[in-house]
Amino acid sequence: MNKTAFFLLMLPASLLHAETQADISLDEVIVTAPLPVTKAEAGSPVTVLSDDELRMKTGHSIGDTLKNELGISSQSFGPGVGTPVIRGQAGPRVRVLSNGIGSNDVSAISPDHATSVEPLLAERIEVLRGPATLLYGSGAMGGVVNVIDNRIPGKAFDKALNAALEQRFDSTSDETSTTMKVEGSKDHIAYHLDGFYRHRNNLDIGGSGIDTAKVAITDPSLEVVDNPSGYLNNTGAEAISGSAGLSWVGDNGFAGASINNLNNSYGIAPDGTGTETVRIAMRQNKYDFKSELTNPLPFAKTLRTRLGYTDYQHTEIANGEPGAFFTNKSYEGRVELNHQDIGPLRGAVGFQAQVSDFNAVEKLTGASIVPRSDTYSYGVFGVEAFDLGPVTYQLGTRVEQTDIHPDGFTPLSYTPVSASVSALWKLDGRNSLNLAITRSSRAPNVQELLANGYHDATRSFELGSLSLKEETAYNLDLGYRFKSDWLRAELDLFHNWAGDYIYQHRTGAFVDEDGNPCAVDCKPVVQSSQQDAIFKGYEAKLIFPVVENHLGLMELTLFSDYTRGEFKTGGDVPRMPPLRYGLQLDYNKDQLSSYLRLTRADDQTHVGDFETSTAGYYLLNVGVNYQIKAAGDAKLLVFAKGNNLLDQNIRNATSYLRNFAPEAGRGAEVGFRLSY
What we know:
The chain is mainly β. The protein is 5% helix and 57% strand. Strand 4 and strand 5 (101-102) form a beta hairpin.
């Protein structure tokens, strides 16, 4: 019997995901959902992080922050990059939003590109799957991650001045980060100011940086002469950001605007040849408008608008000289109307548009990596819900038109159509079942279609394909929830049939930086291709109260998750997360919260052609936080975490750079948050 079957049979002893809070409030409304629903009323899996739980889980990136959540891992590229992977899906299949509108950086098109959305500034993070994702774009087969930071205030504050200061230190890279926020309101005017600064040195690891045996398989011509143990060279980083927002808030809604600037410089772990080091210097300016009106028309409950302009660029600097230069200037807007109930129907309809100007060139020579392309995307969507007895049904659909106009090529046109249906059946006060069926379709992006050149940071020669077609996936999601005084349980099973699945893979060929055959200093060729694939797996957890008395509350969580991706013609989809399982102990008393979490990840041997396996590992983390009431209205939260206490040299199976950049070694993180 294989290990997956064993854990499914032994489900009561091996379920997924632990939480630092004893019980997440199930009555809190999901902001990103198309209709006002709570977590308990959602017809598909929802993850929410906020307040002290978010403070404890905040990592170096969005992926790092979410990597221990239900069915979520992080696609790292060294410590400077961490994008979320949901059920094995990443890149364009996971849409990262900032306050309900796309981040519109270039993190979705290449694994070395960091996202511009910062967890340090987040007040709340929501992860949605299923029908709700149709509101935010086609093809979000993995899900939608919405990072909410209240940059544009949507309601008046209780006083004219509120402030927060947060300071962190992480020993694995001597990282220091400082975050500040000031906000308030007077009469009908509300304001928000925030900013952060972060600096770190090289990352400490639990062994050698480069797995030379694996590198000899994937890059046989690579001669490793520099392989430090205990740390990763060239992984320091520095980032600074500032934002300002202003709103008019009335009895029937609000309207406001914000501006944000972000500068981020981070290093990429070297290949050990001693010939090249690469850093990425990113700059982004973002301008947003947001409004919401209550009962603006006789047939409308609410009318929401979002408008954003993003001016993004980054330069990949090799040995001090600028190399690949990526730019993306993007406009995005959406209008969403929640209509008055029509009989039993309650729902929302909307329109979304996005226009972008993308280019990737060699900065010194002007040689094209990806031709400059204008992309026009327009979509209409609708979601309706109704109740029949104890069952709540939700239907959704989205039709999108995407046109890509690349310089020197014939324009390309696609019409993705997506739809979904879900049902939540509340069997009684303790038990509920949910079922969701989703069809999601997406157009290939410009990188997948048109890449043709050497990419400094990935150290590969990348090839797109104009023959790529729309990718269409059919997903079946079945969930069960149980809640009582002695046990809380969650189980989600999923099966995803992906037609014409687009993926980037090694071809086994090697060329020089100009794409010519070579004998020395060769670079692997990475090609975008597509074929039918199947993804299946589960996520689950059991939570038992162990002790609940005057000494406090202690809970035991047993958890496990698994994703398997394979092509219908045989072979494995590359970069899938391994089987994970483990336990967590949480202790809470008054203002004190703490946890101990042990995770076992199995070997990942289903890795795809010309890829290498990753070894299993044990990950032991601990954490504690304490809330102190300071003078007046001020509150002080102090926290400490111990990460990877077994000092394992962890190779991340979802990372393109896993043979060159392990995850962080043993370390401690301490910090405080003072709020007024």
